[in-house]
Every structure is written in structure tokens, then in C-alpha cells.
Hints:
The chain is mainly alpha-helical.
Amino acid sequence: MTGGRDSVGDSGLVSGSGSASGGRDTSAAATGFAAELHGVARARAVVERLLADNGCAWHLEQTHESLSKYLQEEAAETVDAIIDGDPAKIAEELGDVLYQVLFHTELARKNGETYSFDTVAERLAEKLIARHPHVFETGEQLTSAELTEMWQQLKLRADRKLASGGGISF
């Protein structure tokens, strides 16, 4: 890269050389965009801005289909980081996976699809609660073997419920 300009790489992540800024970080975190927000709320605001009508041209051209290879790539890079045992790299790669989730859900919102980040998160919460009645209902301490058996039973019930047209998938 030349001249310290930021560019959008293959996965849509912004990177910059920082040379025009004397080596300072020129990312969104350093510019103060949505600085009043923190964590997921700030990341969502950044992705929403990238996909706004006057946002990033590359982002605006993307579809779920065009992005699918990046989600797969980021998931694989996360696995590699876990295998390498590097906590900083794991955190970075998990952030890239989260970025893909935010990107897809914001794209869905803009396209008027029937899901959003909040509905995805709510469905996840419901699924986790349904999968763990020993934690959220009975408080019963089970062994791994008992949990595996319970999981098989829950999966069978969920499959039957889905086959009949409703319910939470496992």
C-alpha cells in the first residue's frame, strides 16, 4: 500500500499502512466513529455505516452469496488460531467471524428479509436454553454421558417438531 491510504481487502476488512499518520492507528477505533458506543453496539454501528447508502462501495455490492466464501474463510482462520493456541489471534479471528454475522444481518435488514441481528441472537438464546434444561430449568448436575443421552433425546424431539412444521432447530 502506498501513501497511507486505507483499502478494502478481499474480505472487506479495512487495513491501512498508517504511514501518512506517522504510524498511528487510522482505524475506525482511532477516528472516534461511534465512540459513545462500546462492544457489539459499536461494531454494529460501524457495519451499518459501511452499508449505508453513502457507505463503502465494496460493501454495497455484496450479497449473502458473494460473502459466503469470506464467512467460511474466517471460520477456518479461527480454527487455525485455536489450534495455534494464540489468544490474541483467536480474538482477532473471532472478531472477523462476528463481522461476517453483522454484515449478513445488516444486509438482511436492508433487503427487508425476515431476520436481523436481534432475531438471530434471540433464536440463539432460545436454542441454548432449550438445549440446556439442566441449567435453565432443573438445576440438575449431570455427567457428560448423561448430557449426551439427554442431547440425543432433545434432538429427536426437535427433529419431530420441525418435521411437523414448528419449533426450534437443534
